[in-house]
Amino acid sequence: MPHDLDALENRTLFCLWTGHEEMSDDRLRALWTIFRNTGCAVAFVNRDTLADWVKPDFPLHPAWPHLSATHKADYLRCYLMHHYGGGYTDIKATTKKWVPFFQQLAQSDALALGYQELPNGVAPITGELGDLLRASHADLIGLCAFIFRKGTPLTSSWLARTDALLDEKLDELRRHPAIHPLDRKGILLPDGTPSPYPLKWTELLGDIFHPLVYEFRERILQAPIAPSFASYR
Asked: Which of 30, 110, 128, 170 is 20 to 30 Å from 93 at the Cα level?
């Protein structure tokens, strides 16, 4: 894979499946809609293809092996959007043609494009910042489908804040790596004890992404790019 790829220019759309488990039939059907309907080159990044996308001079964070599959996907969309740009979508069913969305961003001076965040989609950040973000959800974009320019101040800040969090948690992650794909801080394990895994559910993505999107909101476009949120598991 050419490591100088501009995925916005090439209309490349990333989908991620970072765990060892097999996809459900619903997920497979959803993935097929992405290949069939978006009109884009789809890069399906999984355990077998990930190495093709890791830039030699920019390895994945040392915390990578210890993350849950969910948090690996959270980290990886940040990594890919900074180094390659282009589109990202969760593996959820879509009927949307993405080429017009790529064109809309490419023909503007905006840094990113996404769907307007849903009122209940804002990360559960506490305090005044959380209150501000929830009141301003219409100024935010959602986490499940978007397009970015690569190497911008927005993506640089996103990756820097993500790396800083993982630096802070690295020792704990080494001691308490994820033990299942949906592991998160405090969730009850099969034996009834709270998980010692140190990352909260939204800590690696929404807690970083939504404040940054708010900061850069004047340079982000909104468009009806969201997939279906029904029956995707």
From this structure: 110
> How far is 64 from 69, CA to CA, in rounded Å?
10
- Residues 49, 207: Cα–Cα separation, whole Å: 28
SS3 144: strand
CA 59, CA 70: separation in Å to the nearest integer?
A: 19
Looking from the CA of 185 toward its CB, the CA atoms found within 13 Å total 10
The pLDDT tens digits for 5-53 are 899 999 999 999 988 888 889 999 999 999 999 999 999 999 999 999 9
Where along the chain do its domains lie? Answer: 12-222
Question: Are 158 and 215 within 8 A, CB to CB?
Answer: no
Q: How far apart are CA 134 and CA 119, in angstroms?
A: 7
> Residue 127: which region, alpha, beta or left (left: phi > 0; alpha: psi -120 to 50)?
left
- The residues of the chain scoring below 70 in pLDDT are 1-3, 231-233
